[in-house]
Amino acid sequence: MTPAAPVSAPDILVVDDDPVSRDLLVLMLQSADVRVTTACDGRDAVDIIQGRREGTFEAVFTDVQMPRMNGLELLDWLNINTPTTATVIMTASQERDLVSASLRGGAVEFLDKPFDMRAVLRAARQARETHRRRTQQRAAAQRLLDIADINQRLTRSVLGSGGHNANNIKLSTRFYAIDEASGDLIKATVLDANRVMLVLGDVSGHGLKEGFLSAYFQGIIEGMAHQAANCHSIAESFNRFLNEQWNDQNQMSIGTSLSACFLEVDLAARRVSVLNCGSPGVMLSNRRGAVESLAPGGSPLGWFLEIEPKKVTAALDTAGLLQLWSDGLEAHAERIGIPPLALAYRILQAPPHSLADTLLKGADDDIVACRLEWCSPQAGAPFDDVWIPIQRETLPGDSAGRIDEVQGSWSRICRFALPQMGEDLIHDITLCLREALLNALDHGCDNDKVKHAHLELLVDGTASFLHARITDEGAGFDTTTAPSGRDPEHISLGLQVIRSLTHATRHSEDGRTIEMTFCLTPATTP
Amino acid sequence: MNATTPINLADLRNRVMDDDVIIQHMLTSFSGVLESQLTAIRTALATGESPAVARAAHSLKGAAANLSAEPLRDACGALEIAAKENNPSAFPQLAAAIKSAAIDLRLALPVCTR
Fold first, then answer.
1. Which of A331, A353, A385 is at the close of a domain?
2. ipTM
3. How does B7-24 read in b/e, with b if 16+ C-beta sit within 10 Å?
4. What is the pLDDT of residues A336-345, one digit of tens each?
């Protein structure tokens, strides 16, 4: 018999009413230093699990046909009561299809009877990995829920500080950590009745040390902000700390860097000041979703003795939004071939617990996304009326020959950002964008590569309408005569197509801009 | 090793990766439960209830399969199928086949355990 398993060995519960099979499996698992507990049927297994602390068993290996409670009933119970436990169904190979068809959910492994020791040990390894992954996902989901709660508290804190109507400001964040410790952070601090400081940070690395540094940095922000220090002072202070750590010979010193983007938002003065030290920067959008990229770049804190930030101050529209995210979001966006704006939109629209298994599956860096929205209902600019950008691109005037290649990205973005959208609508949108863009390149830019056409895709605050805006750098035309003039015969075929497929079409800036609105919910009217 | 050998030792050794401790334990363990499993089948046959016969045959089939006791496994499998198809007329002949295979196996077990 193999010696007793060490304390750190995995625990597996073997459930089988056949003592010979049960004993054989126990012996095989114990040969791999697995700690094994046995149960003679499903009911016995439930009693044993309920008698232990939660998470004791990494895996349950169960037979199917058993008295009292069979393996499939046990699987159902496990999925509900111990969702991190991996389940291995033991069955004769010729019965597997029948068993598979009976499964009502819960990913499982199969182990053929009679047992082959190699397959048993492989199943044990896979089950342990499954358990580890599920435990991490559960912890990540819990962290996301915690973050959601923090968001609510932050928002209440901001709103409760006075000066702003509770309906005028909204803070949304999503945080996805790929490992158990994360150095990414998002911190909102109320400075006074009208000012909020937002900091998005990313400590290089994913270990406990980075998690500690992140927490330490947040403490410094909180403390210094309450002593009326500005963003520059906080960045300088932390930069000094990191440089001291680099030069410290102590083995426990923290030799790493931190990219951080500081925003000071003054909602009364309608102004935002950005100080960026190595993060992707900030996307500022006005009420109609026109995007301005603020202060990308700068050097991360800890690189140089003097900080080298990018700094800018910009005015805020009566309503609009500020978006910022970590470089992990940009890397994942590139990996899946979606613009960061579209990925940020989708992440921030999705429930927090839905991120890990779907949108962010395969991400290889922590992801943080944050959106601060404000509005002025009294000025006729409620939240619902703010357009959120999901794509913006600029094309040289001689791009008409690439139109087939370019249009492929539009449908992909629409499917990703607005999964509720039907294929017929995506086809209509693509057709309209193609016609409008070709018109902008041909007539607006005269197919001259020096001139450019700009395309923006935007979604309204209720996700009821998609707006597409195309602007060219041409001379424009007299809108009183063409193409929306008084003589319908002069309206081009392309524009007729657009008008027939859109909910609304508008021209502005002397015809250099066309805005097309598509209704995402057929019953809705603007 | 031919197909009628009570235990396919080569297959058994391969499945347990030549672990003599496990083989010894399995043979001993099987010896301990064989009689009770046969009794369970006999009892089920006496009641004439096909579901009970199927369950008992299924149980011994699994134990025999783990030991690579192929003739007994096949005999139990045939009885299980007949029971699931509710074909009691086939029971006596199939039960005799199980008994025969079990006797051969019982004779072979001491040899294997040496």
1. A385
2. 0.82
3. bbbeebeebbeebeebbe
4. 999 999 999 9
Place of tokens 């403390």: A223
Q: From B23, which residue of chain A is nearest by alpha-carbon distance?
A: A24
In a domain, A199, yes or no: yes
Pairwise CB contact (< 8 Å): A118 & B17:
yes
Going by pLDDT thresholds of 50, 70 and 90, the confidence category of residue B85 is very high
CB A445 within 8 A of CB A453: yes
Residue A468: per-residue pLDDT = 96
CA A214 to mean position of chain CA atoms: 20
Contact B62 A23 (CB under 8 A): no
CA dist., res. B64 & res. B40, Å (int)? 15
Residue A7's pLDDT is what?
A: 42
A512 in the same domain as A426: yes
| Band (B52; pLDDT cuts 50, 70, 90) | very high
CATH code of residue A379: 3.60.40.10
From chain B, the residues in CB contact with A20 under 8 A are 26, 29-30, 33, 62-63, 66-67
In a domain, A149, yes or no: no
pTM of the model: 0.58
Domain count, chain A: 3
The residue segments making up the domain with residue A464 are 388-519
Asked whether the CA dihedral A139, A141, A143, A145 is positive or negative, the reply is negative
**Does residue A307 sit in the same domain as residue A433?**
no
Q: What distance in Å separates residue B49's CA from the closest CA in chain A?
A: 16
Which among A66, A61, A47, A187 has a CA at the least distance from the CA of A124?
A: A61
| A82–chain B nearest CA distance, Å | 29
Top-tier CATH class for B9-112: mainly alpha
Q: Would A6 be classed as within a structural domain?
A: no
Q: What is the pLDDT of residues A271-326, one digit of tens each?
A: 999 999 999 989 999 999 999 999 888 899 988 888 989 999 999 998 999 999 99
